[in-house]
Design a protein that fits this description.
alpha/beta, 9 helices
Length: 308
């Protein structure tokens, strides 16, 4: 069995990634330049890595751990939110930088636009990592946001190297088409060359390959990474291995009136997919589980499942 096909491994899921404070502004009318636009605004814990960890904890029965860097001003709040979601926080407190902040502008169709201040997220450094963090870990997941700044990229590459040396499978979520374009697709692909699983959305997959459509992009990426799962939003997901699309998965339909916020829908997919794989699901089955979580996520405000 190839490493990409390994499932049901004993141990925890370790996520290394971003923990941020989300300011979600849901506006039902178009933004009005130079004046006021009415909106429903909430401040919530977020971050692609943290969100995925919370959905994984909610979707599976394995321990989920999260390593990230936050500012001291909100570290306690973020730790409490993670614990309430069933995640074991391993947060590094940064005395000099605030917690990363994302302003999510969500329109009347539930689509969102992000304004991102990485803050402490991008200051995660090799000194924050130890190979001992892999003790008792069955799989490592790296948030792609870490690859977009030199310091956090060095930490992510060190974690990936140690995981490979330990025989621990590594998954990566590319995270942002905008930041990928700035970094450069080849540079990103070279950095994640030793990953076992790549989880891009359709825009990211096309950008990484230059392919004309998501299916061609999935095929191309799976020649470089053993297992590739391309999310297609409401259209579901594609699973590709060894240069071929091996499964096409549909997503549960969500009526327009129930769609309130697409923030974190991809993170929900990632977390649920990873939990399903650790529970023994094959890639297609895990993708179906991920699609169900993503469909639920768009009915919620913010990027995380409700805490129990």
């Amino acid at each position: 069995m190839t490493e990409a096909g390994e499932a049901g491994r004993a141990g925890a899921l370790l996520v290394v990634g971003d923990v941020v404070t989300d300011v979600v502004a849901r506006h039902r009318t178009p933004l009005a330049p130079a004046t006021d636009t009415a909106a429903a605004i909430r401040t919530l814990p977020g971050g692609a890595g943290a969100n995925a960890a919370c959905w994984a904890a909610r979707s599976g029965d394995r321990e989920v751990r999260l390593l990230g860097r936050v500012g001291t001003e909100s570290a306690g709040w973020h730790e409490r939110a993670l614990v309430a979601a069933g995640v074991r926080p391993l947060l590094v407190r940064d005395p000099d930088a605030p917690t990363g902040t994302v302003i999510a502008l969500v329109d009347g169709t539930a689509e969102r636009t992000f304004l991102t201040d990485g803050g402490a997220v991008l200051r995660l450094c090799p000194a924050d990592w130890s190979a001992g963090l892999l003790d008792g870990v069955a799989a490592l997941h790296l948030s792609g946001y870490l690859f977009f700044a030199p310091t956090s990229r060095a930490a992510a590459l060190l974690a990936l190297r140690d995981a490979r040396a330990a025989g621990t499978p590594v998954s990566v979520d590319p995270a942002s088409a905008g930041f990928l374009a700035r970094l450069g697709p080849e540079r990103f692909l070279a950095a994640v060359a030793d990953a076992s699983v790549l989880l891009p959305n359709a825009d990211e997959a096309r950008l990484l390959t230059g392919a004309p459509d998501a299916e061609a992009a999935a095929r191309e990426l799976s020649r470089r990474v053993p297992l590739v799962v391309v999310t297609l939003g409401a259209a579901g997901a594609l699973v590709a291995e060894a240069g071929a699309v091996t499964a096409r998965v549909t997503a549960p339909a969500v009526p327009p009136e129930r769609r309130v916020d697409s923030t974190g829908a991809g993170d929900a997919f990632t977390g649920a997919f990873l939990a399903a794989r650790l529970a023994g699901a094959d890639p297609a089955e895990a993708a179906r589980t991920g699609c169900a979580a993503g469909a639920e996520a768009v009915t919620l405000v913010g990027g995380r499942p409700p805490s129990v």
